[in-house]
Amino acid sequence: MRGPGSIVVSDQQASQQLPTLRRFLQYLQPYRKEIPLAVGLVLIGASTQALGPFLIGWSIDHLIMRGNFKGLMMMMGLLGLIYVGSIQAIRGQIIRVGWIVQRVLAQIRRDIFTKIQSLPLSFFDRSESGDLMSRLLNDVNTINQAFGQTIAQMLGNLFSLLWIIVAMLLINFHLGLVSNLVVPLMIVTTNLFARWARRRFRVTRQTIGELSAKLEEDIGSVREAQAFNRVRFNIEEFNNLNAANRNANVQAVAVTSAFLPSIDFLNTLATAGVLAYGGYLAVTGEATVGTVTSFLLYVQQFFRPIQLLSQFYTQAQSALAGLERIFLLLDEPSQLQDAPNAIEMPPIQGEVSFENVSFGYKPNQLVLKGVNLHAKPGQMIALVGPTGSGKSTIINLVMRFYDVSAGSVKIDGIDVRSVTQGSLRRQIGIVLQDNILFSGTVAENIAFGNPQATLDEIEAAAKIANVHDFITTLPQGYATRLGEKGATLSQGQRQLMSIARAVLIQPRILILDEATSSIDTRTEELVQDAIARLLEGRTSFVIAHRLSTVTQADQVLVIQHGQIVEQGTHSELIAQKGVYANLYALQLSGLAVD
Fold this sequence. Notes:
Strand 1 (352-359) and strand 2 form a beta hairpin. This protein folds into two domains: 16-330, ABC transporter type 1, transmembrane domain (ABC transporter transmembrane region fold), CATH 1.20.1560.10; 352-427 and 549-594, P-loop containing nucleotide triphosphate hydrolases (Rossmann fold, 3-Layer(aba) Sandwich), CATH 3.40.50. The protein has helices at residues 11-14, 17-25, 35-64, 69-118, 121-125, 129-148, 150-171, 173-179, 182-220, 222-227, 231-257, 259-284, 289-330, 391-398, 421-425, 442-446, 455-464, 468-472, 491-504, 521-535, 570-576, 579-588; strands spanning 352-359, 368-375, 380-384, 406-411, 414-415, 428-431, 509-513, 539-543, 555-560, 563-568. A six-stranded mixed beta sheet has the order 6-7-8-3-9-10. With 594 residues, the protein is an alpha/beta fold. The longest helix is centred in the first third of the chain and has 50 residues, at 69-118.
């Protein structure tokens, strides 16, 4: 099941491999001082390998054919030194290149994570977290497999090819031309297979992203799957995506596996050409036996790098497909940028106004239409209405998670678009119905919005939130580590900790989204008491479906279809006998309507 955030690479994008590679190479700029050493080691390794066949051929003609045993021993010693030097150079180049590549990959991971953190919420509305994780983990790992260990060998092989071609042409120009007749065929073959493989590997990267998204979603909802007897259906969905990924990989391997036999055929063809023409030259006296032997060795060396390059090429196609997905993510526009002249939000007093605000998550589909509201400092504003009416959208706009489509949202008379997002959100606290706790300690979770807080400050916030006594019963108290999402705690305990988290940052504006739902009566009393303390002296926006929780609100806004249809205190709205009064009466009678 492909999510709305999946990125499909078009045929036009298929021609953008070189720009993708050039962009990847830009990550090497910080290491331009280390690169010459690595390249120097590559050149040494490649040149020493290319020197061996020449010396062997020379030894046949000038030492073996003349019976010079002493000279032959000395040559063997020289060849030994050359090959030892080659091994050390290759070892050094692998270490240096690996050192550089690992730092490049670490930077790419940082860039991806930083980008994900800075993207607007609208991006996540159409994207799957599993697919994003796949880009950070699977795609980067594919790049590591291609470039982390083998790129040094690939560079060495490329230089070896150049040295071999030059050596063959210098030893015997005509025989060298015959030996290299297969090079154009090799280039055409490689280009053809590369084009096929790129398309196949793009599909593999896309399907692994979809598979990761499905896996992340189903693992996180395994309890719901069992409760609704959906396990078998989830398994079938996973098997379908798994099969799609398998088929994509099989098709990619089918293309790349045909490449190596093609190179082997060209190798055989080149060897036959050297034997035929070289043998003719040797018989006619135009070439020596040592020369023909050198050429045969060079032909074998020539195609050994090609074979290794073909293996690298397979990995590189997958890596480039992964890079394309990564760069598409990095190129996503960060729509909510601070204005160039954005100022720091002054200390908030708590006045909030919506002036003819309209907003839609999608163009031409407005969720809010001409909303006007005014909250004075310290007032409690209750937002009620059916699901989808626009209540959560209003608080999203106060936090500036989104920008308005029309009108303005102002705090203390300042348009929220004219201040930095960080300075705005530092002064706004939020307590949601489903609060997220993390796998750190209790203290770290409470200090999530203020990591520099002292333990005394954390404990003080916990006491205000009525959760200190519970925390002291934990095995390590505030140092107790929580499981993923605080799964070991009850809903009420998580809610109290989230309230402590809000208390710690001392917000001037507080947002409560159904903060007392889904908890038992005893815990609800603790939560209500903690919220009452938290609300003191602060402007608050409270989303509530249970109208009994907002009877003390300074203003109750009834929202339907993105518009405020009624506004006033609880008593005033009851007296109007309109929508709110009807909802309240239904809830009192036990027919709660959402």
